[in-house]
Design goal:
143 residues, two-stranded parallel sheet
Length: 143
């Protein structure tokens, strides 16, 4: 299993691509046969280059399904030998988004945050949010 971490220059991620790969790798450490790799460009091309026959995508909502189905149909045209499978999130986590996690992380302790993110992510996330808040405070305080 390859966990592919996409690099999208059009998105403003909290963590750099390298940091994201490291956090995912730390989160799956100990799972036999699982590797983590960054990629840019099309996921279906990355899959083909790695000899993968299946891309597994998580779905949180019907809106995700609409988007992912469009992508799967496009991917099938580009790479007919790579199938896309969808795994719906359980109801207990389907509402979670990066925005929600950032909001929660600012206001709860590590034990509560552990209900939403892997243990390896907790401290780096809290540190990054503190750094960002401090940088924003310095900008507002500048003469």
């Amino acid at each position: 299993v390859i966990v592919a971490v996409g690099i999208n220059p059009d998105k403003a991620s909290l963590f750099s691509p390298h940091e994201r790969v490291e956090l995912v790798a730390a989160s799956v450490r100990g799972l036999a046969g699982v590797t983590v790799e960054p990629f840019d460009g099309l996921a279906v091309r990355f899959a083909r280059e790695r000899g993968a026959r299946v891309i597994l995508r998580g779905l949180r909502s019907p809106a995700d399904m609409d988007y992912e189905l469009t992508m799967a149909r496009t991917n099938r045209v580009l790479e007919p030998g790579v199938e896309c499978l969808f795994l719906p999130a359980s109801e207990s986590v389907s509402h979670i988004s990066a925005t929600l996690i950032r909001q929660i992380a600012r206001d709860v302790g590590a034990d509560e945050l552990a209900k939403f993110v892997p243990a390896a992510v907790i401290e780096p996330l809290r540190r990054k949010l503190r750094e960002r808040a401090a940088a924003g405070h310095r900008k507002r305080s500048a003469p």
